[in-house]
Design goal:
By secondary structure, the protein is mainly alpha-helical. Helices cover 49% and strands 10% of the residues. It binds protoporphyrin IX containing FE. Keywords: Heme, Iron, Metal-binding.
C-alpha cells in the first residue's frame, strides 16, 4: 500500500519536466506491462491521444520511451548505436532461441555481415526457383493422404492459424534450407518451432534464465534444432549470389519491414512464400467463414511475432470431386 501511494505521489507531484511524461500507473514495477502486453496498438493509440507522440511507460520495472509518428520512426531507426542499441535489449530474449554468436549475440557490425550473407541467397533467380518447391509442399499439405489428416475427406473445418504456422515452416524449410532439412520436419518439428517462438514472451525480457516450463521447452527445442542443422551443414557447401534491392527511408508511416540498419532482408521471400501458398491452396480447396457476423479473429501479441489468435476455425471444401 505504501509503495502504491509513494508511486502515485511521485507521478503526480514530482514530474520531471525535462523527461517525457510517464504513463499513469498504480503499481510500481508492473506499471503498464499488462495493458501494453495484451494490446500494444490500443495502448499506443490511447496514450498518443493523451500525451502526444513522445511518452514513457513502465515495462517490467524498466522505463520504456516511445516516439511515434514518422518523425519518431526516423529518430529511432536512424539512431546512433551508442544511444539505441538493439542487441542490449533483445539479446537476453533472442540468444537462447537463435543460439550464440549470431544476430544480437555479437557486435552489430558482425550481425550486418551475417545479414549480407543471408541476403546473398535471396536473389530474384533463387526466389523464382523456390516457387515450385513451395507449390509442391502446399499441394502435399492439402492432399487427402497428408499425414496430419486435416484434409482427409471432401470437406470439413480446421484451425487456420495452427495449420498455416505448420505449412509456413514446411515451405520455408524446403525452399530456404533444402530437401534434406525439410525431410526431417514432421509435425513434431513444427511443435519445436512453436516452443522456440514461445521463448519470445515478454516475461523473458526479465527472466530468460528462469526455470519456467516455456523456457525448458525453448532450450530443448534449441538444442534439438542446433544438432539437426549441424549434421546437415557438415554435408553442405555454400553458394554465392548477388544482392537484391530493398526500399529506403525511415520517416514513413508504414514500415512493415522496418528500415535502415535493422531493415528486414526477408521481405521478398516472405511475399513469394505468402503468394505461392495462397495461390496453391486456393487451387486445391475453397475456404468459407463459419462466422456469420464476418468478424476477423484478433491478434495474438503473446510472442515477439504477432499472429492471428487461435483457434480461428474455417470451413473448407475440396475443389476436385472424388
Ligand atoms: C511477413 C513476413 C515478415 C515481416 C512482417 C518481417 C518484418 C520485419 C521487421 C519489422 C524488421 C525490423 C525489426 C527491427 O527494426 O527491430 C525485420 C527485420 C529482419 N527480418 Fe524480417 N519480416 C518478415 C520475414 C522475414 C523472413 C522470411 C526473414 C528471413 C529469411 C526475415 C529476416 C529478418 C532479419 C535478418 C532482420 C534484421 C533484424 C535486425 O537487423 O535487427 N524476415 N523483419
Amino acid at each position: 500500500m505504501v509503495a502504491i501511494l509513494l508511486n502515485v505521489t511521485l507521478q503526480v507531484f514530482f514530474k520531471k519536466m525535462d523527461e517525457p511524461t510517464v504513463v499513469f500507473h498504480w503499481l510500481p514495477f508492473i506499471g503498464s506491462t499488462s495493458s501494453y502486453g495484451v494490446d500494444p496498438y490500443g495502448f499506443f493509440f490511447s496514450n498518443r491521444a493523451k500525451y502526444g507522440d513522445i511518452f514513457t511507460f513502465i515495462l517490467l520495472g524498466k522505463k520504456t520511451s516511445v516516439y511515434l509518428g514518422t518523425k519518431g520512426n526516423n529518430f529511432i531507426l536512424n539512431g546512433k548505436i551508442k544511444d539505441l542499441n538493439a542487441e542490449e535489449i533483445y539479446s537476453p530474449l533472442t540468444t537462447p532461441v537463435f543460439g550464440q554468436g549470431v544476430v544480437y549475440d555479437c557486435p552489430n557490425a558482425q550481425f550486418m555481415q551475417q545479414k549480407k550473407f543471408i541476403k546473398h541467397g535471396l536473389t530474384t533467380a533463387s526466389l523464382q526457383s523456390h516457387v515450385s518447391a513451395i507449390t509442391a509442399e502446399t499441394r502435399a499439405f492439402f492432399a487427402k493422404d497428408a499425414s496430419h489428416k486435416r484434409f482427409a475427406s471432401q470437406c470439413g473445418t480446421f484451425d487456420l492459424p495452427t495449420a498455416m504456422a505448420e505449412l509456413t515452416i514446411y515451405t520455408a524449410s524446403r525452399s530456404l534450407q533444402g530437401k534434406e532439412v525439410r525431410d526431417k520436419f514432421d509435425s513434431t518439428f513444427a511443435h519445436l518451432y512453436h516452443d522456440l517462438d514461445m521463448g519470445f514472451t515478454p516475461i523473458n525480457f526479465m527472466l530468460p534464465w528462469a526455470p519456467l516450463p516455456q523456457n525448458r521447452k525453448r532450450d530443448f527445442a534449441q538444442r534439438k534444432m542446433a544438432d539437426t542443422y549441424k549434421a546437415i551443414i557438415q554435408q553442405k557447401r555454400l553458394e554465392d549470389y548477388g544482392y537484391g534491392l530493398v526500399s529506403k527511408g525511415a520517416a514513413s508511416p508504414y514500415l512493415p519491414f522496418g528500415a535502415e540498419r535493422h531493415r528486414c532482408i526477408g521481405e521478398q521471400f516472405a511475399y513469394t512464400q505468402l503468394q505461392t501458398v495462397l495461390v496453391s491452396a486456393m487451387r486445391e480447396v475453397k475456404f468459407f467463414s463459419i462466422d456469420d457476423g464476418g468478424e476477423f479473429t484478433g491478434t495474438d501479441y503473446s510472442s515477439l511475432f504477432s499472429r492471428p489468435l487461435s483457434p480461428a476455425v474455417v470451413r473448407w471444401e475440396r475443389r476436385s470431386k472424388c
